[in-house]
Specification:
By secondary structure, this protein is mainly alpha-helical. Helix content is 72%, strand content 4%. Strands 1-2 form a two-stranded antiparallel ribbon. The longest helix is centred in the last third of the chain and has 27 residues, at 70-96. It is elongated and about 50 Å long.
Length: 97
């Protein structure tokens, strides 16, 4: 799973945009408000979605496209975004003291 085709890239990007939008605009889970924060979530979310299948495994063979398993990609995206925002909030709280 080194290289991916364009359709797989777009699928991971859509997963990242949807999960990032829900966290940023729906739940208001961010370290900083604004469009730059949302775009960084999309970038890191794509990385998390890309790593989802290798880390969480290959679940539900019927819900996949080539080597992109949808549910592990969503979990990978969500987990990396939560870790990223938590780390940023921790650094922000520590530097404010």
């Amino acid at each position: 799973m080194i290289g991916i085709n364009f359709i797989s890239f777009v699928i991971l990007l859509v997963i990242s945009v949807v999960v990032s939008a829900v966290l940023h605009f729906g739940v208001k889970y961010y370290a900083r408000p604004g469009l730059n924060s949302f775009i960084s979530k999309v970038i890191f979310g794509w990385i998390g979605a890309r790593l989802g299948s290798p880390i969480f495994g290959h679940w539900f063979g019927g819900v996949k496209y080539e080597e992109v398993y949808i549910i592990p990609a969503i979990l990978g995206c969500l987990s990396l975004l939560i870790i990223m925002v938590d780390l940023l909030k921790s650094v922000k709280a520590t530097s404010a003291k």
